[in-house]
Tagatose-6-phosphate kinase
Amino acid sequence: MIYTVTLNPAIDKTIVLDSLNLGHVNRSLFSRDDIGGKGINVAKVIKKLGHNVVAMGFIGRENSNYVYKKLYEYGICCDFIEVDGETRTNIKIVEEREGRFTDINQLGFETDNFDLENLIKRIKSRVNSNDVVVLSGSLPKGLNVDTYKIMIEKLKEIGVKIILDAEGEALRKGIEAGPLLIKPNLNELKTIVNCGESLEDIKKAVSVIVDKGITTVVSMGEKGAILFNKDECFYSKPIKVDVKSTVGAGDSMVAAFAIGIHDNLPFEESFRLSIAASTAKVTKEGSQAPDRNEILKYLELVEIQRR
């Protein structure tokens, strides 16, 4: 089984404009609401690819019914711990004329270490040794930067396979606990290591992480993506498509790796699926997940090079 953990979920409201005129009244062309947060976005793609998944984490009690309703529509099983307050709403502004994307992310509810302990207990009561657990996204107010480190240490006691997708100190601390795989984008990588933007610079920067046995996937937007582990290095250039939203592109990559690890696929195959999934995702509005056939359509177009 694959589990995703979202500590700070969100309702993503995407507003599409011709162009944003700052300081003036703007009228949208259309808008859409999706339930999101990185772990939930991962769960949506896993489900679209035909795998079972359980979404866990925290959820705000005040608007929990809406979140449950959306997850039910997606066919995603969930087991959240409800906390006081409401799940945050994130605004995604898409300017069609400029091809520009602006995110306005709210803080959301507040939790504490007692809530975290309860969540860890609940996860440990469900997972088995060969399960895959995805820990991803920002931390809600009230939790320390070592939250992911604590969770990884506790879950590794069971022997689960852990993917971590975070940034800044939360990522740095999490790496200390030794997850199986991390997937920062280039900007997130720069929050934890001194790094240039060439492939050789990135390879050198992540060597200290890879030497710890942590497979590292770095997404670089228009420059493609690169995967490193102790034995292999793969690069994939991007597939040119009409980009409608970049929200959830990295999460789609994580979903592919979760499936690959769960199914014991070679990392090159998982990498290929991840590129296809992220490509299909950016052709969709908002944080809407691509369908399986849309992902498979791009699979044969992925070009992977050994480096």
Notes: The mean pLDDT is 92. The chain has one domain: 2-20+30-306. Residues 259 and 265 are 8 Å apart (CA to CA).
